[in-house]
Request: fold
Amino acid sequence: MKPLFNKRGWSVLAACVLVAVLLPLLHLALPPGHPLHVSGYAMGLVGKFMCYALAALALDLVWGYTGILSLGHGVFFALGAYAHGMYLMRAIGRDGSYGSLLPDFMVFLDWKDYPWYWAFTDHFWYCMLLVVLVPGLLAFVFGWFAFRSRIKGVYFSIITQAMTYAFMLLFFRNDTGFGGNNGFTDFKRILGHAITAPATRVALYLTTLALLVGALLLCRWIVGSRLGRVLQGVRDAESRLMFIGYDPLAFKLFVWTLSAVLCAIAGALYVPQVGIINPSEMSPANSIEMVVWVAIGGRGTLVGPIVGAFAVNGLKSWFTAAFPDLWLFALGLLFILVTLFLRKGIVGTLPDLKRLLPGRAGGKPAPGAKEETA
Amino acid sequence: MSIDMAMKRPGVDTSHGAILYLEDVTVSFDGFRALNQLTLDISVGELRCIIGPNGAGKTTMMDVITGKTRPTSGSAWFGQSHDLAHMTEYQIAHAGIGRKFQRPTVFEQHTVFENLELAMKMDKRVRPTLFARLSGAQRDRIDATLRLIRLHGQEQRLAGLLSHGQKQWLEIGMLLMQEPQLILLDEPVAGMSDAETARTAELLNELRGKHSIVVVEHDMGFVAEIAQQGKVTVLHEGSVLAEGRMDEVQAHERVIEVYLGR
Reply:
């Protein structure tokens, strides 16, 4: 089997992981006054970016490789977050404002008991199962109908957008039983540990890092397999694929569902670190932002979307502090500039830059995925 | 891993000598009859050329055979056992019909080698595809096909960088990798240089007898070259106008009137 990365790729990955692991260690080991101390805020920020990066990676699998542009991946992210959030709400116990076993918003609605779909959500692992199953099932059913009807291109994108919008409206309603527009927040503990304790936060951070790296390796393996080449075939010449005997429906469903599940896992990791989930995560704009991360990082490269998620969100953190009103304009401008001048995104353009350097006129094809067949 | 597990399809029953049988096939789009009670049969191992003016229904006929278009009425059979009117495109491809499009359609972002690898006859469901490994024998098959289509030494080039003629050959190569019993070629020499056309005729003559082949073509010189003493079918307004050897067809009064004489 051909290796997932070449030597240089592995070294870069190892260096990134090393830095990422170092951050929480510096946070825990050094006192706040020390010049090398990493603040809890900074670590939380990186943890949050890693969740975004995982969502972007998932999106790249369907958009970059399979040519299916989803403008509604936020719904899978949010459903994953809500599924984990249900456990976190149950774990609050009687520590809420009303001292009830029910979450505050249910007390407020004068509900006497949990609705049926909250059953067993006090079990952590059951909720983890929901994180995977609910968005996975939604994606599978939605995908089955859409792909079977051969809905493609911009029509598909619009439907995904409508889907996330519909879910947002549903979750905004108080009587849906998910906290209405406030969503879930004020979490106290996870698996018995205080959720704000530095050790807990470091554990969440490291879990996110491990899952992000794991997902990257999984995706890299998939796109390097023959199935990966079939996915690119769906993108480039679907009818040819059909006439050589592949059923595009099955392949699209596979990658679409996998992508939704990865995105949901990102959401589930996001909620305990950020401490809140509400329906605005499902707003169409959020899903479009995910697409921007992928486009800016470089679609069809897997690594690119991770870079893009970090770059755009890093910029956003600084920008929203410095010029709070201008961020959406800046994002729009960035997207236009990348579309006009950097069509392959940051990572996709790197091989072209290398070729410009003297003495390195290598003839490698541009989009990172294919170096050499076996 | 056994590649051919899911390939245990019931073999195409051609005991009656015909590999393809269209009977009274009509396709109408909003009242316009693209095919009008077309009846046609292709024998096992035959190389059949089909000619006809634009709009005669040649491409629609290919669409019916490959499952892209459903006949409004009539039946289409592949051997005795496969009712083409009720199969999907990929099922028909699995059953053993390969099709080359009018415009060359290859995976431009894949290398020549990868194009042939994807087309190769094997279990094409999701899981086996994810875990597929290339065996030595399969590599040899790809190698043999590369030589046949004269792309040997170019297997690592991106298909999108090939010349128009080379793309056409690559597409034919992909068909051959499917090991089909019936090959449909829609204008295989459209846009080719004279040398490329001659080479394509040579290629088809090499394939003669190994597969049943249906060629739809405008280029009369090319048709004369590959039809030899075989049958040529002339389509006109969705049905068969004439059928016979090339010289017979060329002498046919109605054919001259609607097509050749212009």
Chain B touches chain A at residues 66, 88-90, 93-94, 98-99, 101, 105-111, 113-114, 117-119, 121, 124-126, 129-134, 155-156, 158, 174, 178 (CB under 8 Å). Chain B has one domain: 5-260. The two ends of chain B are 58 Å apart (CA to CA).
